[in-house]
Amino acid sequence: MSAASESQRAFVGLLAQPLVTAATDTSLYRKVLGNMQRVTDHARRSGYRVQRLGRAVRLIRVPVAGTVALPPRPQHAPGRRLLALICCLAACCEDVNGTITLQRLSDMVRDLSATPGVQVTGYDPDDRSQRRMLRAAAEYLDTLGVLRRRTSDDRLLDDWIEGGDGPGAGYEVDKDALLLMTSPDTVALALNPEPADPEMIAASRTMRQLRALLETPAVLYADLDDGGADLLRRQRGLRAQDLALMTGGTVEARTEGLVLILPDDDGRIPPTVIDWPRAKAADWVALLLADDAGREGTRQPDGTVVLTSTQVDNLADYLLRERGDYMNKTQKSVPGTVRADAETKLTGLGLLTVTADGGWILSPVAGRYRDPGVTYNTAGDLT
């Protein structure tokens, strides 16, 4: 593999997993370190910053002209309460040297949340649901490499969650990863981005377009102001060259906008796209309902398709009547489940916006999934 391809894989890997350590992903960590100069150049081109500390590397999404691209919120992203516990747990880890048990971390989070001036709802370690959530917070930090679990016996964790007994589990704190995650400079950039004047906004337009192509499902001309849309149309060839150099991907040009298609990597780097559709009832229901909505709704000049809430209900009912035999028990028995499953999937993918009155606005990108071939084998399984 050429050096250019290696650096592209390393950069795309950091896009998917912005904080990587030698322990969390040895292969990606080695790729990044072996191609650090090229990866840093790719990052700088789109306004990112690569920071290394010890055996940890982080890709920092520095706001450009006071703004960041906003991809759809992942369906399994932590909620506000879990995020608060993650932050509290990370703060407590700063006082840890070596190994520590989850029980001890639980006591530290309790004390921290009870400190005057801390604007976080108190954590109660005697509440089983809160102990379960703290375990989820520890698992989240484990995926980032901030915490590394040192004990493998799940029974210890189960006993701690169910009855608050025992140590729970043993963890080791990776101070390098922790410092990169909680860096005051990075937190300040996220919470207090510098305001941008009109000249800065104009000067950063190219960089913001690259950022949007890298981080969102598609860049639609209708979402840009007239000047930005015209510039992107004229320079789409240049942007495609930039992204090919950085990622090895290609830009698909459509009437409504541009889509970056990244190369398949056979699992050698972290995935950059959601694995959808999969052979699950909620997935194929969303796929088929989106196809029907694209046909039955009213197409707008910007490429979106608009439906009323009643139209959506009618399409969901029709799908239930025609394909109900292949749906799961809840979809068949609980009214509204088919529509709810489709909305959850499609909004998480950035293909759908649900209006305040329940209507649908289907993104032009949903047209890429037109005419799906959903079939069933003799056992009744989706293929």
Automatic annotation (TrEMBL):
<dbReference type="InterPro" id="IPR013494">
    <property type="entry name" value="CHP02678"/>
</dbReference>
<protein>
    <submittedName>
        <fullName>TIGR02678 family protein</fullName>
    </submittedName>
</protein>
<dbReference type="Pfam" id="PF09661">
    <property type="entry name" value="DUF2398"/>
</dbReference>
